[in-house]
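TA notes, week 10

Several of you asked for a full example with nothing omitted. So below is the full record: structure tokens for the whole chain, then the designed sequence directly under it. When grading your own attempts, check the secondary structure regions first.
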């Protein structure tokens, strides 16, 4: 009896049809490709500036940018970056977002944090306006070189 069952199983083919296996592999490859694309988007800081925003970039200036780093009672480093953003252009700006790039001693990027300088919470910037900003970070890796992070404007939206 056991011999007959083995022969029947061999004769009937695999338990899962080959087209089903192919579809599952195709879906897995598509999901892997999507996750890889998402990781590239987050590594690059998201979408690039539009041509309109890129042309306006020289009209936005950061000034008086300073950094303070303190250790709290849990021995975590709390970093605060303060400064001013100035709209020297002729358009009202509703959003300005930046990436703050922290590096280790050899200059290798170890953390990229996204922050908003101008937005719903702070209100728009009319031409000629100056706004103070304050950015706080508390999860910077210990390998950080303690230098001012690079600030890159990644998003500008107009009213």
């Amino acid at each position: 009896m056991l011999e007959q069952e083995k022969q029947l199983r061999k004769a009937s083919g695999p338990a899962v049809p080959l087209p089903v296996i192919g579809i599952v592999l195709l879906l897995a490859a598509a999901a892997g490709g999507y996750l890889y694309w998402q990781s590239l988007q987050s590594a690059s800081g998201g979408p690039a500036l539009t041509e309109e925003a890129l042309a306006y970039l020289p009209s936005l200036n950061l000034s008086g940018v300073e950094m303070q780093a303190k250790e709290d009672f849990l021995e975590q480093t709390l970093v605060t970056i303060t400064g001013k953003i100035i709209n020297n252009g002729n358009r009202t700006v509703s959003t300005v977002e930046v990436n703050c790039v922290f590096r280790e001693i050899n200059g290798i990027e170890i953390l990229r944090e996204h922050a908003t300088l101008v937005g719903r919470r702070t209100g728009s910037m009319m031409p000629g306006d100056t706004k103070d900003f304050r950015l706080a970070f508390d999860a910077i890796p210990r390998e950080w070189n303690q230098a001012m992070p690079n600030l890159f404007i990644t998003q500008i939206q107009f009213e």
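The longest strand covers residues 60-71. Use that as a sanity check on your answer.
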